[in-house]
Amino acid sequence: MIKKKRWLTFMLAMVPGVGHMYLGFKKMGLQFMIGAFVCIIFIPHVPMVFPFALAALWFYQLFDALQKAAWMKISASEHERLMFHPDSLGAPWSYDMHGPGLAGFPQDDIHPVWLGGTCVVAGALLLLITAFPALWDFLARFNFGTILLSLGLIGYGLRMLKSSTKA
Question: What is the dihedral of CA 37, 40, 44, 48, to 10 degrees?
Answer without folding.
Answer: 120
